[in-house]
Amino acid sequence: MNAPAPALDLPSSALYSYARRAGQVIYTAGIVAINAEGQTVGVGDAGAQTRHILQSIQSILAAHGVTLADVVSNWIFVKNFDDYAAVNAVYAEFFKAPMPVRYCIRADLVRNDWLVEIASVAHSA
């Protein structure tokens, strides 16, 4: 499965897939705010990074025939809990009731300029 281009191109050295289907369940990798050139989108702005990430997840899920309404679980990793409100504000634009279950974990992310990473699980009917 190839993720939609250009914003989601993986380098040939990537050791993971953006998403995998297991029956009716689609699992996404942890998605971060990077563009096709590997540059961070929204440096210093957790809200902008969250928006880019959720748009990317939306595209990945669409390639598997599902939407954000089919998401049953989200794992949100934030570098700093001071960004929690900004993440939530954008998150509320993308998800409506019934809300997915979610986890929010403070984490050291791979790059210093990444403030947010989100992994989703969706169920197709």
Task: Report the helical percentage.
Answer: 10-25%
Summed over residues and divided by their number, the pLDDT gives a mean of: 89
Low-confidence stretches: 1-8
Structural class: alpha+beta
Largest sheet: 5 strands, mixed
Order of helices and strands: EEHEHEE
Summarize the structure in words:
The protein is α+β, with helices and mostly antiparallel strands. It has a single domain (19-123), classed as 60s Ribosomal Protein L30, Chain: A. The protein contains two helices and five strands; from the N terminus they run ββαβαββ. It has helices spanning 46-63, 84-94; strands at 19-22, 25-28, 71-78, 101-106, 116-123. It has a five-stranded mixed beta sheet, with helices on one face. β3 (71-78), α2 and β4 form a beta-alpha-beta unit. α1 (46-63) packs parallel to α2 (84-94). The protein starts with 18 loop residues before the first strand and ends with a strand. Belongs to the RutC family. This is Pyrimidine utilization protein C.
Q: Notable features of this structure?
A:
single chain, 125 residues, alpha+beta, 60s Ribosomal Protein L30, Chain: A, five-stranded mixed sheet, disordered N terminus
Secondary-structure blueprint:
Blueprint: E1 19-22, E2 25-28, H1 46-63, E3 71-78, H2 84-94, E4 101-106, E5 116-123
Parallel strand pairs: 3-4
Antiparallel strand pairs: 1-2, 2-5, 3-5
Helix pairs in contact: 1-2
Pfam family, one: Ribonuc_L-PSP
Protein name: Pyrimidine utilization protein C
InterPro entries: RutC-like_sf (IPR035959), YjgF/YER057c/UK114 (IPR006175)
